[in-house]
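[Q] Does anyone have a clean structure-token version of this?
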Amino acid sequence: MYRSILHLLMAALPAAVSAAPKQSCCQLVDSKIPGRISYPGSTTYNSSIASYYGDSERELSPSCIYRPTTTSEVQQFVQLVTSGNCMNKQFAVRGGGHTFWRGAANIQPGITVDMRVMNSLQLSTDRKIAGVGGGALWDQIYPQLVPYNLTILGGRIPGIGVGGFATGGGITFASRQHGFGCDNIVGYEIVLANGKVAYASASSNPDLWLALKGGSNNFGIITRFDIGTISQDKMSYNLVNYNYTNASLRAHANAFSKFMKPQNFDKSAMMGVFLNYYGGQLSLTDALWYTQPVQKPTVYKPFFNIPNSTVSVSQLDTVDKVVEKFGEAIPTHVDRGFQLTFSFRNPNSATYFELFKIWENAMPKLANVQGLYVSFLVQPHPVTNGTNLFGLQAGKTDDVIVDMTSAYTNKADDARVAQVLTDIVNQQKQLLRKTNHLIDFIYLNYADISQQVLQSWGPSNVNKLRAASKKYDPSGVFQTQVPGGFKIPK
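[A] Here you go.
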């Protein structure tokens, strides 16, 4: 009898084992790397989701959020999600979370890797290199460099992550002298798809080093950026407001066209002309930065001399304080948002005026969009040293970049806002194409996912990205398991 009972129990055992609930990937990571996973409803999870800049990312609910604290923990994570039952599990990687469009740095379902705990800064002995954690925010790093009269090329407002900024290019105050932020990165510590740590520099894995300079999240998870420091004491920042009139627009068109001429180039001068639409009203503002301690630089005299202007900010301070002050003019979070970009060679003043009017004439189409704010930013291109795959001419000083940005309240207005802004940009590009000023390059950090960013860098550079991906990620983990971002064209 006992033998029969035992036989029945033994026969039932496999069924019982097979019926045991399968461990989810979140649970697996949690069991192998305790204390780093947060689940929906927890304070840590909710705080991470709430910190995204736009609602398109905040509305996604990942299965769990993983917050690594060391490179080793990033390694372990990658190894777990690329093997066993978790093979092919999709995940996203985030830093500052400032990109507007859905799925750029968040995912549903899947695991979101929130890198922001990895925010360390370590200066080399000679203080020429700043080793910055892959999840740091620029406004966390700047103040730590001030005592040494140093800075590095990073974001111009609080909350911008080092990772997204640097892997997408990076435009900042000193970009006219030092180029894109990525031009100044001497090395990357990165966890590859096989879970191994690699170091990419000009002398070690140079093909990967070059691919990471603008190649976004296509090659691995960067755990440290080694960035060349630059000497920086105080710099100036002036915010000037003007009456929005045709006379002011013409004066700006003339002043900016002259400012961008090579013979007038000043490597310390970086500026932005902002045409804004908010609450049914048009406004015109200039942000004038100068990386030397000069309160009102001569190069900006034509802008200061435009009639009916008011200087609302006049600051001479360290980079961290300028970032803090400029950030006061930018919302810390938005509901909905849409953004487009394009670049061109400096045209004459008449063309600038026409670009301004194309934008202005379209604004009434959006007049009843709730909470609408539209900004049409015109600014100089970084003067690159060519250590990237952007396909831009090194040392060129007269290229211009546009950032067309909108923010508004309701998801129901997404298609309408996107269509109007797309029509504006298409008209502006058509004008510039007609005058032979439009250039192919599309800047990743200002682009919408609808824009063909990597393709705009030219076939030879796309081939270099493909080759690096095939070499360092032969299974295509960061092409398929990390679906967000601008993927390498097949």
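[Q] Thanks! Anything notable?
[A] The longest helix spans residues 414-434.
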